[in-house]
Amino acid sequence: MGLVLRGHTNRVGSVAFSPDGRMLASGSDDTTVRLWDPATGQVLRILKEHQSWVLSVAFSPDSQLLASGSVDNTVRLWDPATGRVLHILEGHPRAVWSVAFSPDGRMLASGSSDNTVRLWDLATGQVLRILKGHTDGVRCVAFSPDGRMLASGSADKTVQLWNPATGQVLHTLEGHTDWVQSVAFSPDSRMLASGSDDCTVRLWDTSSGLGLRTITRHTDWVRGVAFSPDGQMLASGSWDTTVRLWDPATGRVLRALEGHIAQVYCVAFSPDGRMLASGSSDNTVRLWTIRE
Questions:
Q1: Are strands 211-215 and 275-280 parallel, antiparallel or unpaired?
Q2: Burial of 83 from C-beta contacts in 10 A (0-12 / 13-18 / 19+)
Q3: Among 44, 70, 150, 227, which residue's beta carbon has the most beta carbons within 10 A?
Q4: Contact at 8 Å (CB) between 194 and 185?
Q5: Is the model's pLDDT at 243 over the cut of 90?
Q6: CA gap 178, 157 in Å, rounded
Q7: What is the pLDDT of residue 2?
Q8: CA 272 vs CA 58, 172, 190, 226, 275: distances in Å
């Protein structure tokens, strides 16, 4: 195991590495975002502008922007170098559960308890389109690395695959029997992983929308999923307090990472694939060494 990052005073619900590998962001129910140096575990700065729980954090592809979504119904865009708020994106009438940048850095997606996904133009801060189709709150969003798809997972137990350029639904992925809490694309955009409160991880073919396999080894809700940068590993974080590493091609367990003393809510690989970050309701972020 690597470092244990302490400082948050409540649940850590989201973690994200900057694409340049120099920072790790964590969002917490203590209403703050913390920026860490992943090499040392030192806090670089604490961002305190949100008025309620911070549910999601994401870096832009060039590492120059940080987005955070909150129960205060807003998305905030920060300059991570200074900690200054650059824009406040308002429009969702309910909590913003998830945020994700498009691969070209021009758009931001936000998923909300209002059952919608909003796509924002980052040049203007205006809404480009509102994606409606889910019948319950949207808990997670992710762009495909090729930029051609946007995935959203919902409390309606489905995953929707959208064309972000048109707002059209490409596929509705059905099979989970409880809320879908996390989605992640493989690096080649051909596969999607979804984690659910039904305690499973499902892998889907993005071109057909068909299920490939279901991973059932967790014993409690699965709240976070992430592919390694090379696509050879899939990480999942669960309320059973473990992080598990899988071979996505076979569904075989590679490793079980144990150390958190409470529910794991989120996982993220470093850009070089050597580290994995996990956030927990034990108020810590753990950095695991995956490859030396």
A1: unpaired
A2: middle
A3: 150
A4: no
A5: yes
A6: 5
A7: 82
A8: 17, 32, 21, 14, 8
The pLDDT of residue 223 is above 70: yes
CB 23 within 8 A of CB 63: yes
Q: What is the DSSP letter of 287?
A: E
- Rounded CA separation 188/118 (Å): 25
pLDDT of residue 67: 98
DSSP state for residue 207 in the 8-state scheme? T
Mean pLDDT score of the chain, rounded to an integer? 97
User: Do residues 176 and 200 touch, judged by C-beta distance below 8 A?
Assistant: yes
CA angle (129 as vertex; 128, 134 as ends), nearest 5: 150
HSE-up of 43 (CA within 13 Å, CB side)? 14
End-to-end CA distance of the chain: 11
Strands of the 201-205 sheet, one edge to the other: 180-185, 191-196, 201-205, 211-215
Give percent of the chain with pLDDT exceeding 90: 98
| Percent above pLDDT 70 for the chain | 100
Q: Tell whether the model's pLDDT for residue 241 goes beyond 70.
A: yes
Residue reference for tokens 């824009």 = 87
DSSP code for 113: T
The CA distance from 23 to 59, in Å, is: 10
pTM for the predicted model, two decimal places? 0.98
CA dist 129 and 115 (Å) reads 14
Q: Bridge partners of 264? A: 280
Q: How far is CA 52 from the centre of its chain?
A: 19
Point out which residues pair with 99 in neighbouring strands. Answer: 110
Model pLDDT, residue 9: 98
Greatest Cα pair distance in the chain: 45
